Structure formats: C-alpha cells, structure tokens
Recover the amino acids of this structure.
C-alpha cells in the first residue's frame, strides 16, 4: 500500500491523512493477539514514526493519566517518542469510541513528565510537527534521539545480557542504514576519539572537524551507543564519535574518494626516509663550527627532492608532531594532531632528546586566522599515521569546471533579462562574446587545452564526425541527454583537445534586427560552449558549459 506523505508544514495540524487514520484504526484491532508486532509496524508506518520520532510536536487531545487511567484533554508540546500498545479499561469512561482492549499510543516527552495519547482520530484533535531551527539535519537529530533513548533504557533497566544489548544496538544501526553511505560518510563534529593500535586519543577543538569514514556502525561505550567508523584515509585508524557531538552527516560520492595522495607512497618513501636518516645520523658527528653550514646543505638536499613533487604544498596529517610547549620554555614536545590544509615550509633538522631528526616544518593556522604556529612533522609511520597531499592539477581542473558553471549562470541570467532583447544585435553579440571570452580564459588557464589528452564528463552533448564538421549545421544534430530526473547519467568523452567556440555567435550570418528570444539560441541558450575533440575516432562534441560535470587528464586509452 502506498504510504501517504506527512504534512510537515508548521502552520498545519493535519499531520495524518484520512488514509493514515484508517490504517491505524485497522491495525489497532490486531493488538492484544499474536500479531502485535505486525500491528505496531503498520501503525508506525501510518503514523510516520520515522519522520516524527525525536522531533518536537504539539499535540492537542486526550491523554491517559498514570494515576487512575482516566483521560484528560491536554495541549502538550514536547518530543515525540516511541509508539507502544496501551491497555484500555472498558470500565473507565473515554471521550472516544472504545472498540478494543488495547490501542497504540504516542508518547510525548516533556521536561516534567511523559504524556500518552491514544492513536485514534477521536482522541487526538490535532498533531503538529514543530519547525526545527537548530540547523542540525534530521538524520542527525533522529540518531541523537535514539542514542539518548537507548542509553536511558539500558541504564534504567540495567540491561547487561548480550542478546538484549545486541537488539538495542541493531535498532539504532537500522536507523543509520537509512543514510546511503556506500561510498563512505562524512561526519562533522565538535569532538571525537581516534583509536590506533589499541591506543585512544581524544580530539577536541573550538572549530568543528570533518571526518571521512567508511563502514560506520554503532557500538556500546558503557551504556551508551557511539558511532565508530574506519578512517577512509588510513585503514589502521578508527574514529569514535558520540552523537551529541555530531553536527552533520553526509554520504561521500564514490568518485570523491581517493582524491588525496598518500605521501608515504610517493614522496616520503623508503628511499627518502633512508636518505633522511643517514643525513641526520651524519649530522650528529659534524663539528660545531661547521654545523650550521652542513645542516643547511643537508636540508637543501632533502628540499631538492621535495621540489620534484607538485603535491607537496598544503598537506593533511594525523599523528604525533613536535610542537613548542610554552609552559616549558618552548621546548619541543610530542602532541597528537589531526590537521587538514597545513602549509609545508620545507625540510629541516631538529634536535629532540639529544638526537637529530629530519622533519617537515609545517605552519598551522586556526580557522579564524588569528594566529599560526610552526610544528615539526617527522615523516615516519611510527609517528604519523596519515600524511597526505593533493594533486594540484586535479584541484585546478575542479576549479575550472566550477568557474565554467558560474560563467554559464551569469550568461543565462543576462539572456533572461528583458533588457538584453532591447539591445541592437551587435551589442547583444558583444554581451555573449564577453562570457565566451571569460570561458576561453578559464580553459587557457588550465594549460595544454589544445592537447588535453584526457576525459570530459558531461550530462548532454551533440556529436559530429570530423568529415562532416563543415558540411552539417550543428542545429541539425540531435542532443544526447539524460531523460530521467532521478538519475544523472554521465557521458565520459575522450578529450584530446578543448576549445571554447559557440557557433551561434561565431558562425552567425549577417542579419538585420536583433535576437528577440532565447529560443533563437537553441544550441547554447546564451551560454559559452566547448568543442571537445576525440582525435582517435575523429569526432567532435559540442557541449554547453553548464553540462560539463568534470575534467581529468586520465589515460585517454581507457576512455570509451
């Protein structure tokens, strides 16, 4: 049976439809027998329990008194809790029809007490879902509610047997599974723990952290369920987060995973570390009069190796770094850090406990930009569990696509403005040419655009064989595009070269008058356009800038 949509507008009390009430009444008849679980499941679905549980609601209706089971008309604002069966005593007068010994009841929790409202159209005059202004997404609020509720149940009931605790943890994991996190999940939080090789470190900061994890699940921490997940960037580390500290949770697009580069695999490999260790060892035998000169020379040797890698600039790392301790006369002390976007100043040599180490000098800024400090990262897996850089070209191409989208939006706004159609033709073409020029500058800035040798992923395109390029009008070429509104199919085009060229501007014949409607620009809709060349198959693709999804310089031989 199709589930009706709850009305969640704050100014409407009609949260339940007539169909919802009909289903609830039918399921109430099944309570008190062998089909209790089926009945409650049907009632929870009809009552939109998944949408309202843990949310603030306003209920006007008859609640059952805990003292004498009588019914009182109440107007209550509180948190919607679980739906459970309520015994109905036929000897007690009720202001609604009694047709069964048990009815489902909605619990509304307030700071003073819990109220139980029989789920019956005559018993509940109105029920309203109140708006939430916390800025916390619904999925997080719901998981917080479940974590709090399970902690209360486990604590009050002193539930310690394994089977009962498993059922409780399964309940909150079922709620977690409503989030599609196949590609991983990002958790924004105020505090968390990192477990590495059995050791646990608490991380608390004034600024929220964003954790990227995979295989998230809830586990017990005393009597409270907490979220655990593997660090998506380091399989040896596990994040542990309490839902009370979570601000946001979002699935990670599978295509975004792996954009970072493990610097232990590329830059600080075995050869680099062996060289660094040997230089640091040799430095300990250098005469003091020559120390400064030799240490600079050795540091330059390591920095020359760093300069060969474009991904060493801004880095992220997790582990123990050496930082000056202000309470000990700025003596270097190990401090556990989880840092994103730190700036590397270069390699240097430091002395710690009378021993020399080759280290990265890193500048860390707080988010407000009020202060920065230098710390020293020894590129050793025994100290640092994650050390990552980012491919500058990948980021450059992402920024280029974002810029193309912005230009396309500005151009679209221009041609949808009535003032555009009051201009003479030459001025109209000048306006469109300005946006085309801006897009051309973006493509030129990414470098080697005419020898791109990569991939252009788009959502729509027109295609012409090379031998027909000058013989057939692009207006006669059909547009290949996605028809479904639910799923965007991505076309991966082999891109040997990229050129900004709008045939509606550059190939427009001399005509009198002016453009009177955007319908006269069916190819571009006023946007700049790209011509993508597949040299191997001698094909040309015409693509609107807004239809470009991504650019990458992959191996073109792997692109179909």
């Amino acid at each position: 049976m199709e589930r009706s949509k709850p009305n969640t507008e704050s100014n409407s009390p009609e949260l339940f439809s007539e169909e919802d009430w009909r289903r609830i009444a039918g399921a109430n008849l099944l309570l008190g027998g062998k089909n209790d679980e089926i009945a409650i499941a049907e009632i929870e679905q009809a009552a939109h329990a998944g949408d309202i549980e843990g949310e603030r609601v306003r209920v006007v209706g008859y609640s059952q008194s805990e003292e004498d089971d009588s019914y009182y008309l109440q107007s209550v604002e509180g948190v919607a809790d679980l739906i459970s069966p309520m015994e109905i005593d036929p000897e007690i007068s009720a202001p609604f029809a009694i047709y069964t010994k048990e009815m489902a009841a909605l619990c509304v929790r307030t700071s003073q007490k819990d109220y139980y409202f029989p789920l019956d159209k005559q018993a509940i005059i109105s029920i309203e879902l109140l708006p939430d202004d916390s800025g916390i997404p619904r999925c997080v609020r719901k998981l917080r509610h479940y974590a709090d509720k399970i902690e209360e149940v486990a604590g009050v009931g002193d539930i310690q047997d394994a089977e009962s605790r498993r059922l409780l943890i399964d309940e909150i994991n079922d709620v977690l599974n409503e989030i599609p996190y196949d590609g991983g999940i990002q958790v924004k939080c105020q505090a968390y723990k990192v477990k590495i090789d059995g050791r646990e470190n608490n991380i608390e900061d004034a600024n929220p952290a964003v954790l990227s994890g995979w295989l998230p699940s809830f586990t017990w921490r005393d009597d409270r369920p907490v979220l655990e997940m593997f660090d998506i960037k380091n399989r040896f580390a596990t994040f542990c987060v309490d839902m009370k500290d979570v601000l946001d949770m979002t699935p990670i697009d599978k295509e975004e995973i792996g954009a970072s580069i493990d610097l232990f695999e590329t830059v600080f490999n075995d050869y680099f570390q062996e060289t660094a260790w040997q230089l640091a060892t040799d430095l300990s035998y250098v005469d003091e009069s020559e120390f400064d000169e030799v240490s600079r020379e050795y540091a330059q040797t390591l920095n020359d190796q760093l300069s060969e890698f474009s991904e060493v600039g801004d880095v992220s790392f997790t582990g123990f770094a050496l930082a000056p301790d202000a309470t000990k006369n700025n003596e270097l002390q190990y401090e556990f850090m989880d840092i994103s976007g730190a700036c590397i100043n270069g390699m240097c040599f430091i002395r710690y406990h009378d021993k020399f180490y080759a280290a990265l000098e890193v500048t860390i800024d707080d988010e407000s930009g009020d202060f920065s400090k230098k710390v020293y990262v020894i590129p050793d897996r025994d100290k640092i569990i994650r050390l990552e850089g980012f491919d500058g070209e990948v980021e450059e191409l992402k920024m280029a696509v974002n810029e193309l989208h912005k230009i396309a939006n500005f151009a679209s706004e221009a041609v949808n403005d009535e003032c555009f159609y009051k201009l003479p033709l030459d001025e109209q073409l000048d306006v469109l040419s300005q946006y085309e020029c801006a897009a051309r500058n973006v493509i030129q800035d990414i470098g080697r655009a005419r020898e791109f040798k990569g991939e252009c992923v788009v959502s729509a395109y027109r295609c012409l064989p090379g031998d027909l390029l000058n013989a057939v009008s692009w207006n006669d070429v059909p547009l290949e595009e996605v028809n479904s509104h639910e799923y965007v199919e991505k076309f991966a085009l082999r891109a040997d070269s990229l050129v900004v060229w709008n045939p509606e501007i550059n190939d427009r014949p001399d005509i009198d008058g002016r453009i009177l409607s955007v319908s006269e620009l069916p190819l571009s809709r006023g946007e700049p356009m790209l011509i993508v060349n597949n040299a191997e198959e001698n094909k040309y693709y015409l693509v609107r800038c807004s239809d470009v999804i991504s650019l990458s310089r992959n191996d073109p031989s792997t692109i179909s």
Q: What stands out?
A: The longest helix spans residues 392-415.
